Amino acid sequence: MTELDRIDMAILEAVQANNRITSEELGERVGLSPTACQRRLKRLRADGVIEADISVVSPKAVGRPISMLVLVSLERERVDIVDRFKASIRATAEVMVGFYVTGDADFVLLITAKSMEDYEQFTRRFFYENHDIKGFKTLVVMDRVKASFALPIEL
What we know:
Elements: H1 6-17, H2 23-30, H3 34-46, E1 66-74, H4 79-90, E2 95-100, E3 107-113, H5 116-128, E4 133-140
Antiparallel strand pairs: 1-3, 1-4, 2-3
C-alpha cells in the first residue's frame, strides 16, 4: 500500500476533476514545481493509485443511448464458474462496468446498447448462451444523473 501525503491527495483530487490539467497549473494548486508534480504523478501511476486516465464519453454522441443495470445470478458459485464469468465481462465491450457482489445477485453489470433490439441480441449471445447463468434481471436507465469515477478525497 502506497503511503499518500497531503500533496499526493491534493494531486489526486485535482486530476480526478480534470486529468488534462497542466503540470504548471497542478504545481500552482498544490505548491510544488511542475517537475515535482510530474514525478509524483508517475509514482502514483506506477504504484497503481491512479489506475487509468480516461475521458467520460457521452453514450448518445457515439450512438449508444440505452443503458441498463443487469443483476446476474449464476447457477452455482464455484471458483471456476465465477472466474469464467469475470473473464467474459472483461472481454465484452458492451459491459462498461462489472461488479461481483453479495446479496440476491452474484454480479451487477452496467451495459450499453444502440437500441432495445441491440440489447435483445446481446442478451441472447451473452446471457442465454451461457449455461453458467441461472438468470438475470434488467433495469433500464431512464436518466444518467451522474457519471464519474471520482472518489471523495479528504485533504
